[in-house]
Amino acid sequence: MNASIDDKAANSPRDRGEQQRHREERGGTDALAYGGYNFAYLDEQTKRMIRRALLKAVAIPGYQVPFGGREMPMPYGWGTGGMQLTASILGADDVLKVIDQGADDTTNAVSIRTFFERVAGVETTTRTQAASVIQTRHRIPERALSPHQILVFQVPIPEPLRFIEPSEEETRVMHALEEYGVMHVKLYEDIARHGHIATTYAYPVKVDGRYVMDPSPIPKFDNPKLDMSEALMLFGAGREKRLYAIPPYTRVKSLDFEDHPFEIPTWDEPCALCGATDSYLDEVITDDRGGRMFVCSDTDYCQDRREEVA
Amino acid sequence: MYVAVKGGEQAIANAHRWMADRRRGDRDQDELKVDQVRDQLGLAVDRVMAEASLHDPQLAALALKQASGDLTEAVFLLRAYRTTLPRLADSVALRTADMRVERRISATFKDVPGGQVLGSTYDYTHRLLDFMLLADGETPAPEKADAVLEACPQILEALDAEGLIEQEIDDGAEPYDITRDPPDFPVDRATRLQMLARGDEGYLLALGYSTQRGYGRNHPFAGEIRQGAVEVEIEVEGFDGPLCIGEVVISECQMINQFGGSREKAPQFTRGYGLAFGRNERKTMAMALVDRALRAEELGEPVQGPAQQAEFVLAHADNVEASGFVSHLKLPHYVDFQSELELLRRLRREHAPGLAAEGEAPPPPGPGSDADSAAAGAQTPAPSDPQRSQESPA
Known about the structure:
- The structure holds two protein chains of two kinds.
- By secondary structure, chain A is an alpha/beta fold.
- Chain A has helices spanning 13-25, 44-59, 80-89, 107-120, 168-176, 181-194, 299-309, and strands at residues 65-66, 95-100, 123-124, 133-137, 150-154, 205-207, 211-213, 232-237, 242-246, 252-254, 281-285, 292-296.
- In chain A, the strands form three sheets. In chain A, strands 1-9-8-5-4-2-3 form a seven-stranded mixed beta sheet. A three-stranded antiparallel beta sheet of chain A has the order 7-6-10, with no helix packed on it. A two-stranded antiparallel sheet of chain A has the order 11-12.
- Chain B is α+β, with helices and mostly antiparallel strands.
- Helix content of chain B is 40%, strand content 12%.
- The two termini of chain B are 30 Å apart.
């Protein structure tokens, strides 16, 4: 990366304009269009603060660590937590992949990827295997991740107990005392009313036999991928200023009952594009007469399989 | 054939370009200058500065221009800029008693030392549209008197001398910094005030209003409202006293509220406090009401109204957070929606035969119905099957 990126002396907007002009004169790249900002946007102190919080999170799997979340130049709720984590762990030689709903080309994924291309100048990819850091919203890639990869989740509401107990003061105590009965009661009430556990995404898990954790709004289809994952998984909630982690090879169990074991949804048909029967499928409406088709939500997985066939 | 819905960098770029064009508007009109916004839409600028927690009228005006006048968007722009600024120094506490007062009123005393100073205000205007402004009429310059303003001591201090009002005592504790540290509920009053100071004006107004209508009533009097410039000072090593580095215009509101007291302690008036950058009188009044409401627990009052519930009030006051999270609903959610669809179809499949058999309520779910339904699911025709579309609309 260009060494001048580390030079954070310029502070006022006027200085920044000045600095930007200098860079442009030196033939700055697009990465320098945001002149005056540090590598990966956040200043080094902030990144260090976040990395410290991440270390704590890794040391206590599933525990929500408060961190001094910053405003990002994207709205809260649009992945600012994930972005701060990504910014803190990103190095110049990392290869970044960003997905939203499993796809690399959804608008917000495009926007976040472009942001890091600009402020960090890192290489980006859409190929799951080629990425060292993958930031995701609502999905875990279908292909198993490897030990050298880090998956960063964007988290809207980090507290799994929030919709049962709105007060943060209370839920903190509940976690401390491992008072998770209410969660099982909630799941039981689902069964009593619907005959099923009616939670289909953000399905609560217990991490390493201790903390109940919200895996972010991934479909419960993805929950088994959390268990004994070889890759480090980091979770960032920007608005709520909480982060947490699942270290590699950690036991992650989806909450259930003996007579109502956890199960994942299945589809009656394969992906209409690649024929996969083991992937999460999105339903796409093809006309206004009830026509629809099912295709892989993980676009890279789908692409890969189609190339293999071809 | 299915074509993947591509977000596309090009589409995003075009959308932004169109927005910029909209913002600029008809090219036959002169472009609005940032200086004009700063000087002629000053109250909007002040509100943006207050809610962004950054005192910079020029940049706040730029944000307003860039946001086409969308206040919340402008607040967000300025806030995102603010967060990148380094901390060079902490100011010492502002001495609002020494304010160069331009407006200062009290609703609790007819006359006060320094007098009632009306300053500039829309109060008492008749809210009639001034069509002269439409016709580009000239605004006459104000007349200026030479009289020097008398000293304006803070009115609540007069009550303090008699012990009629609770004292605010600086305990010297290092204040929590809400922009650097995550919220840790319950929070102390200094932290609360920081959160309220950047809180959305409309939100605080509604909550303050609710206390007046009985949801956590606290019997307020506007003890003093003042506006004007105060000096900002910092401590510098090697200098004895603090050094003034400039002035900021602020608004301050001190509410006097009904008594606290106990068997051990004589009854006293209590206080609610509001402070904001710029001329933000409505905001500071609302803030003072809410501050007082949030002291319910501390003062031994029952917590009944929404405005008295600290976690509720404070966690939702920030409009940058709120607008972000509300607007994120625009982002794709089709993965989660697909999960819900799958479940709902399954539930309806199980529901339908029951309806046919009994004519009303669904059968109670039996044990192991989860596994049963998975098996049933496998036999059910695919959603694309025409047979299914006949049976699904129940």
